[in-house]
Amino acid sequence: MVPLLNVMPMGVCTVTSSACVPAPIMWYGFEDGIFVGFFNPLLEDSVLPCASGVDQVVHVL
Which superkingdom is the protein from (predicted)? Predict the structure, then answer.
């Protein structure tokens, strides 16, 4: 995940109160041990935390 390349801004950041520029860390809650291509599939409860302190940047619906 690269901010401003494949993760675009999402409104206002709840931490900085300015434009949200996601700083994703790493997905968790994905299916481990199964691969789609070279990647693990995301699940309903997969989340992508943000380095700025926001609990979740992306929540899979």
Answer: Bacteria
